[in-house]
Amino acid sequence: MTTYEKLATVIAVMAILQPWIIKMWNQYFKKTSLTFIPSSKIKLYYNRSGTYVYLGGVIEAKNRAAVIKDISVKVIRQRDRAELDLDWSSFMAPAFQSVGGKAITTNEFARPFKVEAGSLYPVFVEFGSTINSEIERLAEIYGILSAEAKSVVGANVPIDKAKQALINSSCYQPFKEELLQGFYWKKDNYCLELTITYNDNASKKYKFNFSIDSDEASKVRENIDKSMQSVIDELYMTPTNFYFPQKEFVLADE
After folding, report:
1. What is the rounded CA–CA span in Å between residue 192 and residue 249?
2. Which end of the chain is more exposed for a tag (fewer CB within 10 A), N or C?
């Protein structure tokens, strides 16, 4: 075999092996690159579930697949550095669906999922408190309010009078003061830290800034009364309309 033939053979073998070499390199040596691309807006909530956040976007994985193990949010109020730690609780459908002529959203419990390399995976997540004492206290408050609501509702009692009777009950004002004391959404500047944990405890963090003005803070605070009086709305099969501010994704300066 001549030198030229040997060289041609080596080149041919390398051409055959090249895709496998690249695949092996990407699979075993290149690290996963993860990117969160936000969409829609950050939604700030307060209702019977307490204080929570909703946001959506897509997660892109490059080089290698990524198993998303957890997504969490920390909100920091800038004036007093008060922190709100939340973890993923539900995946929400990004669009309303119509069932029986009524607009509803569907959701499922948050759980780990896999994003294949070179693909985009949409995520629309509600983040709730993981502090058991807070969850249990809210359940206790609304359990007592529900029992009180049943005692003031009657066949011939209008909904407005039923709500006023609930407001006049001995438990209403102390509970309202307690909820106001722990109310988080105040007029201020905030930083939201989004942390995505994937694979072997690797993580990617994003920071976004937003502000709540006095008008927004006042309207969200009204959700406390709406939440408490929603126990009456339930008995009258009337929807409760809550206010929630929506904020753009504005990346924080590092």
Report:
1. 10
2. C
Instruction: Give dist(CA 204, CA 33) in Å, integer.
Output: 9
CA angle 129, 130, 134 (to 5 degrees): 70
- Residue-wise pLDDT tens digits, 213-248: 999 999 999 999 999 999 999 999 999 999 999 999
pTM for the complete prediction? Answer: 0.82
Q: Report residue 88 as tokens.
A: 């993923």
d(CA 139, CA 133): 10
Strand ranges, E, within the chain: 33-47, 50-62, 66-77, 83-92, 97-99, 102-104, 107-109, 113-115, 119-129, 188-198, 202-212, 246-247
- Whether residue 166 contacts residue 172, with contact meaning beta carbons closer than 8 Å, is answered with yes
Q: Which two tokens stand for residue 208?
A: 């976004």
* Residue 51 near residue 184 (C-beta atoms within 8 A): yes
Distance of alpha carbon 108 from alpha carbon 230, whole angstroms = 24
For the purposes of burial, counting CB atoms within 10 Å of the CB of 46, is it exposed (0-12), middle (13-18) or buried (19 or more)?
buried
